[in-house]
Specification:
6-stranded antiparallel β-sheet, 7-stranded mixed beta barrel, mainly beta, Cyclophilin
Length: 311
């Protein structure tokens, strides 16, 4: 139904992820930005967790071999159908032989293209999400390449839908993440504790779905720390021996041996998927009870629009 003419920087098939297997060393994977992923499916008339395409940094070209409807959400890329501009965060019909092109991301990092009825893909542990390091899910466990052909399911779906005012998130090159203290935070020097909350960091070119290395003020411990491997989650900020922090993202390994100094709150983790190389990242202090209230409010807000969705 859909032919990949150019896969862009990296495009994969993702869904809501394979949760509950981190104790076996298998990350959840799934859409790096679950909010924009869910909005794309909502507009296409699907369940929020239907498999869709995640286009990283842009450059994707698709040819449609049948009429269908698509939903676009996420990073702002100059998107066209047959050379005509189309709006982001919208649903639109496409005809047989139409060609969709996406230029490179201007704001954000990842865009989502959902197709009416959802994509067919390989399943592993009840998920179609592509996890490239272990070649799981998606299409042969890899990123798409030119010449690939994708098919949709024949399951029923609803008519295309519009996003009401106020539900589409704003994206920028400066990502502000609320975080609470990690297990080793108190072992930092006072100066380093202050730097984490007042000094922005810039992500390096070593940024992918596993993590983002941050450039900025060194983060130092009072004394050198020797740790055994300990549990990690997406949104954990670790400190490397050279003092530079690294932020784990959606495909992060399940354990690590570096000090864990901050943990991004669950309600803000969708923003991790929009961190590109060169993005400015700032952290803001959040207390545990505040994190719970923020998550509860966000889930309540979006569940009024998207049935079954939660962060």
């Amino acid at each position: 139904m859909i032919e990949v003419l150019n896969p862009g920087t990296r495009t994969t098939i993702q869904d809501a992820g394979r949760h509950g297997y981190r104790h076996m060393g298998i990350p959840a994977s799934g859409a790096a930005d679950p909010l924009c992923f869910a909005l794309a499916n909502y507009m296409a008339g699907n369940r929020w967790d239907a498999p869709a395409l995640e286009c990283t940094m842009g450059g994707l070209h698709l040819k449609f071999l049948e009429d269908t409807t698509i939903g676009l959400a996420g990073a702002h890329m100059w998107t066209q159908i047959n050379g005509q501009n189309v709006e982001n965060f919208t649903a639109l019909p496409v005809k047989k032989n139409d060609i969709l092109t996406m230029s490179f991301a201007r704001d954000g990092c990842r865009a989502y293209i959902a197709f009416a009825r959802g994509l067919r893909a390989e399943r592993f542990l009840d998920s179609c999400s592509t996890y490239i390091p272990a070649k799981l899910g998606g299409l042969e466990g890899r990123a798409l390449k030119s010449g690939d052909r994708l098919k949709t399911h024949n399951r029923p779906c609803e008519a295309p839908r519009k996003i009401p005012l106020g539900f589409a998130p704003a994206l920028s090159h400066h990502v502000v993440l609320r975080a609470y203290h990690g297990p080793e935070f108190e072992q930092l020097t006072q100066e380093s504790k202050r730097h984490l909350y007042v000094s922005p960091y810039i992500t390096s070119d070593k940024t992918d779905r596993m993590g983002a290395r941050l450039r900025g003020n060194n983060v130092e411990t009072k004394v050198p720390i020797s740790m055994t491997s300990s549990p990690l989650l997406p949104g954990t900020l670790q400190v490397l021996p050279n003092g530079q922090p690294i932020l784990t993202l959606i495909d992060a390994q399940c354990t690590g041996g570096y000090p864990r100094v901050l943990q991004v709150i669950k309600a803000d983790q969708w923003l991790l998927g929009q961190i590109a190389p060169g993005t400015q990242v700032s952290f803001r202090r959040c207390f545990d009870d505040e994190a719970f209230d923020i998550l509860k409010a966000r889930n309540s807000f979006y569940s009024t629009l998207i049935d079954g969705f939660s962060f």
